[in-house]
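Backbone-to-sequence.
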């Protein structure tokens, strides 16, 4: 079992992973289960995410977020929606 850490700095490599939610470039570390919902800083609760998906997910439980995303997709980070 991997011990939980007191800081996210040890998992900075996750920032370069692709976004787990949209597949675009990452850039942030997201808690799969939000800390406010009892999630921890353990490696099995952390993933790379783009800023747009990380913000959109917020406190939503993962399954709810993924269902909502299926109806209203979040554009990948850096995506300008065709300049519109």
């Amino acid at each position: 079992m991997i011990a939980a850490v007191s800081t996210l700095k040890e998992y900075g490599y996750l920032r370069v992973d692709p976004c787990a939610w949209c597949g675009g470039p990452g850039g942030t570390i997201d808690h799969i289960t939000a800390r406010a919902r009892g999630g921890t800083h353990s490696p099995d609760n952390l993933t790379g995410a783009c800023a747009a998906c990380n913000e959109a997910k917020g406190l939503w439980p993962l399954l709810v977020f993924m269902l909502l995303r299926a109806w209203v997709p979040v554009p990948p980070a850096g995506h300008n929606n065709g300049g519109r």
